[in-house]
Amino acid sequence: MTVVSRDQVTLRAMRSGDLPRVAALEVELFGVGAWSPAMLEGEFAGPGWYVVATAPGTIPGAELVVGYAGLQCDGETADITTIGVAPQAQRLGIGSMLLEALHERARSLGASAVFLEVAVTNSAAISLYERYGYERLGVRKRYYQPENLDAYTMRLTLES
């Protein structure tokens, strides 16, 4: 897969056919502690909102999922459940595209704040979130399994 620029990438609602690629990306990004296809399927079938970033595939007319993100919202606050971008497509701004789409969705649902948790070792993601104005609220111990890494809990107050 070769994604040359952000201009090649489009966002759309996640479909059930995207599950195998998202599951493969989970393992590629998060290793053995990644969510299994069954766990992902259960998550995607729930009440949340999920979006994928796609780029043209090598076959004309085909598309390849190069990123994904999810949001749960109770009306007052929203929780980002996941954001992942294929390693070969990172540094193109796809994470920003996904994050902006989640923020837009949270606003449309009436949320006043967005929360997330991110591994303390994921400096690229932490930098992205802080550029968007997220503040660190604290550290959650033993959140990421089986590695037992710690996670920052972060919040962004949404402007109307």
TrEMBL record:
NCBIfam families linked: rimI
Gene3D superfamilies on file = 3.40.630.30
Q: What keywords appear on the UniProt entry?
A: Acyltransferase, Cytoplasm, Ribonucleoprotein, Ribosomal protein, Transferase
Q: Top enzyme class of this protein?
A: transferase
Q: Name one GO molecular function term.
A: protein-N-terminal-alanine acetyltransferase activity
Q: Is Magnesium one of the keywords UniProt gives this record? A: no
- Superkingdom, natural source: Bacteria
Occurrences of domain N-acetyltransferase (ranges): 9-159
Q: What is its EC number?
A: 2.3.1.266
**What Pfam families is this protein classified in?**
Acetyltransf_1
By sequence similarity, the record places it as follows: Belongs to the acetyltransferase family. RimI subfamily.
> PROSITE patterns from the entry?
GNAT
Q: Name one GO cellular component term.
A: ribosome
The name on file for this protein is Ribosomal protein S18-alanine N-acetyltransferase
For this protein, the record's PANTHER family field holds:
ACETYLTRANSFERASE, ACETYLTRANSFERASE YPEA
